[in-house]
Amino acid sequence: MSALSLKNTLRPLPALIMALSLSACTLGPDYQRPELQTPVAFKQAEGWKLAAPSDHILGDAWWQLYDDAELNALVEKLNLSNQDLAVAEAQYRQARALVRGARAGFFPSLTGNAGKTRSGRGVGSSTTRLPDGSTVTSSGGGGISQSYDLSFAASWELDLWGRLRRGLESSRASMQASSADLAAVRLSLQSELVQNYLQLRVLDAQQRLLDATVQAYARSLRISENQYRAGIVGRADIAQARTQLKSTEAQAIDLRYQRAQLEHAIAVLIGVPPAEFALAEVDALPQLPEVPSLLPSQLLERRPDVAAAERDVIAANAEIGVAKTAWFPSLSLSAAGGYRSGTLDNWIETPNRFWSIGPEFAMTLFDGGLIRSQIEQAEASYDQTVASYRQTVLNSFREVEDNLVQLRVMAEEAVVQQEALEAAQESLRLIENQYRAGTVDFLSVATVQTTALNNERTNLTLLGSRLTSSVQLITALGGGWHSDRLEEEPPMAAGRE
Predict the structure, then answer these.
(1) Alpha carbon distance, N-terminus to C-terminus of the chain
(2) Which residues contact 403 (CB under 8 A, 6 or more apart)?
(3) Reduced DSSP (H G I as helix, E B as strand, rest coil) percent helix, strand, coil of the chain, to 5
(4) Which has the closest alpha carbon to 475: 192, 267, 176?
(5) How far apart are alpha carbons 395 and 36 in whole angstroms?
(6) Rounded average pLDDT per 10-residue block, the chain, 497 residues
(7) Where would I find the H helices in 59-153?
(8) Contact by Cβ (8 Å): 146, 116
(9) CA nearest 339: which of 71, 148, 159, 198?
(10) What is the side-by-side order of every strand in the sheet holding 353-362?
């Protein structure tokens, strides 16, 4: 190769190196997590019995803490068939597609065109007057022409100031926010299902209690009737015993519609029409699990709503850079070429070839303050997302504290309530013996029986509240989720990948 040829070959290199150097510039602020005031520990965790070890208890299938095979199966059905989850999953796939669209801007675009064109003009005549006064008439013949075109065009915008990179950063953060939103929806639906199921099982226990109480009150009514016939008690005792029996039967009937409503809610959550779903009663009563402890700072990584709020901040921060690139010129490289001919026979031949190539700079010279307003909008949007992120974190701290104190106080209440129940049962045993001996009237017995029944129902209601609060605490701690799952790997939802 001659020196001249080498020089001609290397001549474009400085321009290419300059373009590559310029393309390394990225305008706009780099993201930094907003400052947060994070407590070192939860205030209400002091004195609360926590699971140990606590670093692996909250796995993906956190509902297995309740050790119920039917509950596990229901949650799996929810993960596959819930329609709200399908909506969130479709929104996530849409956000992921937008990321792929943002990446496409880094590559040249190539288009091709092939076509045939026919054209013609009309036939007409014209009259021309000569200087001697005579006229001459001429006619123009019309005709049809046709052309064949085969062309290709390529264009490529160089990312000189980082507009495309900031746009991709924003799209990726929005995709991750959508992924976290999907996880938050899934966790919320799972929590709702588990709470409904646990409450249904508590209602089953209350139903068994009321059914057994109805049988006991029916026996009391028979005893009163026998004593009335023997002349031991008056008719008022029979009326009192019958009133108590029927009142308790009404309470037992009232539980049926409450259970049916919970059953219907569970059916909808797993994507089944209520008419096609039924849960059989079981004797087992859910046990309250031990809940693992977490530091407040861990909520920033474990709660999907907190992660989603932070990704919104990242996206808004990147949009500031996108807005600032409008101050600077854009550079596009374009090329086109192909063949054009009036006949098909010699269409693809060298004489019919055409081409064009060249760069294009574009820059806004005056816009009346439009770019400045767009930058200010982006900065205000960023401030808004920061405030929303901080508020989401504060709400997460409050939810955990609320459920911790609720569980702790209800645990203390359960101890006292159990003592009250034992005392009521002992009092009932004594008063029933006194009634059989004829030393007290039935009104005294009915009063003690009602007190004992109310204490047993309160005991079950309190257990249901503690179970519900434990689910809410697990949900407030983020379940088994972690922000590491916000990477490119798509989450499973609604039977799709």
Answers:
(1) 56
(2) 469, 470, 472, 473, 476
(3) 60, 15, 25
(4) 192
(5) 13
(6) 39 48 71 82 59 50 91 94 93 91 90 84 60 57 74 89 90 92 94 96 92 87 84 83 90 92 96 93 85 75 90 94 90 89 79 86 88 94 95 92 90 91 89 81 82 89 93 90 68 43
(7) 69-81, 83-104
(8) yes
(9) 148
(10) 109-121, 143-158, 330-341, 353-362
3-class DSSP assignment, residue 224: helix
- Strand-pairing partners, residue 147, are 117
Using DSSP bridges, classify how beta strands 330-341 and 353-362 pair: parallel, antiparallel or unpaired.
antiparallel
E-strand spans in 247-311?
none
Give me the pLDDT at residue 127, please.
64
Phi first, then psi: give them for residue 365, nearest 5 degrees: -95, -30
Cα-based angle 368, 370, 374 (whole degrees, multiple of 5): 160
pLDDT at res. 431: 86
Which residues 6+ apart lie within 8 Å of 123 measured at CB?
Answer: 139, 140, 141, 142
Strand locations in 346-446, DSSP E?
353-362
**Closest C-alpha among 383, 470, 395 to residue 34:** 383
Sign of CA dihedral 50, 55, 61, 67: negative
pLDDT at 140: 53
